[in-house]
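Consider the following assembly input.
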Amino acid sequence: LWLGVSAAVTARGVVEGEAYDFGVVPQYAASQVHTIWEPILEAVSQRARVELDLAGSPDISGFERQLEAGCFDFAYMNPYHLIRAHQAQGYQPLLRDRDHSLFGILVVRADSDIEEPEDLDGRRLAMPAPNALGASLLLRAELARQFGLVIEPWYVRRHSSVYVNVSLGLAAAGGGVQRTLDQQPQALREQLRVIHRTEAVPPHPVAVHPRVPEAVQARVLAAFLALGESEEGRALLAEIPIRRIGPAALADYARVQELGLDAFVMEPP
Amino acid sequence: MSIRFKLLLPLVLVVVAFSSILHLYWLPRFDAEERAQQVASEQSVLTLLAASLAEPLLAGDLSTVHEVLDRALWERPGWKGLRLVDMMGRTLYPLEARDDATPEGLTLFSHTLTASDRPVAMLELAADIDSRIREEIRAIRHLEWLLIGLLAVVMMISAWIQDAWVRLPLARLANAAQRIAAGQFKVSLPQASPDETGQLVAAFAQMRDAVVERERSLHAARDRAEALAQAKSEFLANMSHEIRSPMNGVLGMLELLGKSELGAAQRQYVDSAYRSGEHLMTILNDVLDLSKVEAGRMRLEAVDFHLLQLLQDLIDLFTGPARQKDIHLTWELGGDVAHWLRGDKTRLWQVLSNLMGNAIKFTRQGEVRVAVHRENARYRFEVQDTGVGIEAPALGRIFDPFEQADSSTTRRYGGTGLGLALCRQLIELMGGEIDVQSTPGQGSRFWFTVPLEEAQAAEQGPPSSHPGPDAPSQSQEGESPEQRTEAEAIPPARVLVVEDNPVNQAVVRGMLEGIAGQVDLAENGACALERMASTRYDLVLMDVQMPVLDGYEATARIRKQEGDARHTPIIALTANVMAGDADRCLAAGMDDYIAKPVQLAVLRNKVLRWLPVTRPAAGDGAMGQDLDEEQLRHLRDNLGSAFDGVLHTYVEDGLRRVSTMEQALAADDGPWLVREAHTLRGCSQSLGIRRVAELCQALEHSARARGALGQDEQVSALREAVNDAVATLQREWLQSANACGDPAAIRD
């Protein structure tokens, strides 16, 4: 990892002061993450006159471990990660999408006889991963607490697999988020029906480790916000996806903490 | 099969073999192997694919499964369909349930996914192996067509090259060879290229040169041989002349000597000498004839002749000798034998007289019999004797030159042994054959067959007693040389003898004594022309071979000089007995010819015949103008019982010929008229019917000059004369005869 970072430093060659590691939750394949974030970090680095190096993570669990160990100076993560990282390392939210909010959805086959969450009692529910915020934690917490249901969870790794399994009838229902559902092919989407939405929470923030100097934090914040001012910058941010970038505060995520999702988190073996 | 085809055949065979192997063996094998390989390959790929699916499938990560399968389908165009079915029969891939029916021509594969040895799902693949193999086979086919096309191009180029370098030169060479075979040695040969074809052409050219060279040398050799033969022939002809001229003198002088006052012993010596000379001439003639035949210079003539007359003349010729030896001469004629025939009468006579002479020579007593029969288009002549016969071993050689039955024969009977050789040569020349059967002590039978045509003119006059020009017929007449001389009335005629040899001059002059009033001499043709310019002659005797101006040329000039004004009879004296001489004499404008040596009887006969008949005759009576009674009487004495037959025939023939002349006149056919007049004149002269002969001669001359037109008067005068002569003959001569015999009765 450090080799990769030093290689990145050498390659970029815009060293002015310190270099900072920037972690990204691996929602997508590493290459895709790279494609999305590399131009953004480059633009921000130039503007903020700091060096931001993209730090890779093998998977979400690895990312979580790195995050809680304080490996990243900056990191893009989900709201629940923020709560955990703040508790562990004191990470502070810096930026977030001001237009968008995060919530989980419950899908069934379009021709299914399941009309409401109550019908799912005892049925198999496909979800991407145990700790996925919208598709798993928020949904499971709500189904358990609000509806009092016992379901058979089935983690199929990816949002797409959730939809395919539901479509094929291998699972009675599936948990996902609106954004990934919208990304599915038309034919698949038409076979699915959304029967429930969870409570919405603010979307993924970019958080900063308290060890990063205030000035640097300010410059990076300013550089990100400046991206949102230009057409090109917005196009880059939309890839993340962030529609309208704006500053974030820890207070924005108080509700997430209130939800007490820790009970539903499953630690990897 | 053309050489082009033969040369191209290997290429064609290669193409056929290549195609056959490709289609019958290689392609099917390729198909099978390729299919097996493809199946194995697809199966292994499918296995790998399945292996990569197992983990996400167990994790329920169907999206990953779908992505992998989508990518697999996208990456492999030959994969037309993939299906993943779980153990409960649910289709996990693709999302949209497709038609289960497998499209035509697709190969199905399946693989069972296992986890911990438990089957979890079935992966099915429908792959289009066929079209891929088809594609590959099509590529191979394209390659094949390309190859065949290339070979075709190679073949065309090869054919073109073969044409240009091999076939065309060969064809041209063959063409040249054919033309050379046809004798065109000058044909141009194809150009010799520096290869085997060129070598062939060069070798052929060499061969042609060799052939040309050989032909040239053969021609040269042939020319030399011909020149030699020519020289030999010339030599013989010259020798003939050279020997005949002195012999002419010897015999003539002997004949004259025989007429003078001699004692009995002296007369016997003279007769002996004369006979020896005659024998020498016979031998000479035989030698010359034989050499002529061998030199290929003997020419056969085709003349109409009367067979009976020929036989009668032969019998007459040999009657004397036969009587002396107590030999009975008979002849026999087949019923279907035509009387008038066309052929070489002279040679026929020569052969027959030779055979008869031999028969009489070798027969002591008994019979010599001549027989003529017809065998289809041929005539078979036989001469049979009761003589000594010939031993069998000698029979085979008897017709070879200089061969006789045995050498003692020569001693006993004389002769050169040339006679039979000559007979065989002549008969073979006439297209016939000759042979002999003989029994020693009992006699021989010589026979020959010759093709003879019937004379073309259906109506023929009586046989002309006018003999052939050659020696045998001369000797026939020579039988009674003395009989006529004293009795005949000699008109005082003026005769010019043109002869360069003084001895011959003397002989001819001596012989003419008593029949010609005045005899003038000229040494050559030029002198003769001079004399004739100043003097008018009744007859000219002209030697043909003379210095300064020869007889032919002199005669031609005389005729030109005379024009139509007059016609002096010219008789050739020729020692040239080669064939064609007679024709040449007549062609030169001569009227008749006498062969040397000149014999008194022949000379007198011819001279009397050709002296103008208008001359006042010595005979008396009104008939004296029209009929020569002396001659008729003489004939009657000579012919004996045959005389009436002859006269009878003349009467018939004369009347018929005048009618024919009238027809010729009507047809305006001059040559016909001339021919008829000539024939009638000949007969009339022979019988001494002078008026008719005279008119015929006049008619002949004017018709020859002016054609048939305007001859009516002459013909009617001739008709009158013939009628008169016929009347007189019937009244005066036929009535006095014993009987009117048919031709058969004239036999002795």
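Chain A has a mean pLDDT of 89. Ask yourself how this observation constrains the way the partners meet.
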